[in-house]
Amino acid sequence: MIFDNFRRQLRQEAQLWRDEGLIDADFYQVLAQRYQFNNLETAARDRFVFILIAVGAILLGLGVITFVAANWQALSREARLILLLSLFLTTNIAGFSLWRQPVRGRKRRQQVFGEGLLILGALTIGANMALLAQMFHISGSSYELFLGWGLAVLLMAYSLHLTSLGMLALILVLIGYSTGLSDWYFTQNELTLGRIVIEHIPLALGVLFVPLAYLCRSRWIFRIAAIAFVISWQFHLKSLQVLTYTDAPPWIAVAAFTVPPALLWSYDDLLFGRVSSRLFQPFARTLTLAFFSIMFYFLSFRWLWEARTVGYQAQFKNTFLATWLPFIDVAIFTVLALWQWWHLLRQTRNQERHGIDLKTIFIGSLIVITALFIFIHQAITPIPAIPIFAFNALLAVLGFGLIREALELGERRAFWGGILLLTLQIISRMLEYDTALLFKSLVFALCGVVVIFAGLWFERYLSSLPASSTHRS
Fold this sequence. Notes:
- The protein is mainly alpha-helical.
- The chain has a domain at 36-136.
- The protein is 78% helix and 0% strand.
- The chain contains 19 helices and no strands.
- It has helices at residues 2-20, 25-35, 40-70, 77-99, 107-135, 142-160, 163-186, 193-199, 201-216, 219-237, 239-242, 250-265, 281-299, 302-306, 319-350, 358-380, 385-409, 412-432, 437-464.
- The longest helix has 32 residues, at 319-350.
- It is globular and about 70 Å long.
């Protein structure tokens, strides 16, 4: 879609250049053939048709499932089984037959319709699993149904290299994880297949969906999987809770706050075989900065460092599940992060003409400082005052760093990200500590005035930059 927007803008500019006489008609035809200007409307129409077919397939699937459920009791077990299998096989065989058609002319419409039927077939998998379990009295939790359903759709996505099926599989797995998270908290002494997946969901997301993102060349699969990895990692290790317990293993707290940024910033697509471009690295690094921003903001509150309680192990019925199963994921991702950083530093050292990558050194310093303060506070002696000051300082440094990068590259997102961090820090510290109401009103007013003038100044600064060096995002 991004490339289509570029082609559409290029076509408009090329037409303007032709009308103004900057280029002749022959050169315009060369551009039109190279960037396929004539196919822009067809591509947009095909996307719209696919959305309509996908929505229609979902509604059709829900209608069929509802109809079958309404007449379920009137059918025999054999009729139910034949009906379910017939629906599943018909939709998938018809969808695959239409989808495999070559992309030419009207065949494109058939392929889009076939992909919609494949989505409908993927939706019928869950209905078949649920109804068959009911027929044969197979007990199980709802999250196990969603996990099994998601893995089945994932197998289809790997077989056909379809982004739509990959997104559906990822959504189903995340629904299963979110619904089974409470069960994971309160039944720590049980060990089932569904619980193993929940326990190791960060590892499962990396192993199952990152290769699929490369097969489909889908940024959205990688983005959602990476965000889900970071969030599930925090739930997995209870990052904010573990800082308040004196008897929690210190490596859990260190890993909770340092492994995600270390893994994401050093991520390089070129480290993996058969990859010739850095398709996902920019987003991984952007997510690293977002993670640091959110993490430093929460770690800047003093209640998190001053609260010291005992009973980390008491909340689990089985200390093996509490300590050693998370260690498996931590060990794997730590080794992977070290391997990536070794390649990153070696690459930086070999590129002497570009000098030292100061941004990489800055991110590495943030990771080391974070690990050092958390380890000292958890393993050696409580030092609440020092981390409070340190993480407030790091939050301010990160905010000013984003503003500095925005001034160098002319990026609005980095500028407003830095302004947001500094404003939130000032307002949070003002509300956290006991201050007079008059002082609060003065702080709010000053923050509003500064944000307005900073935004106006930055827009004027962007307008003064050369057009080639400005990224208006």
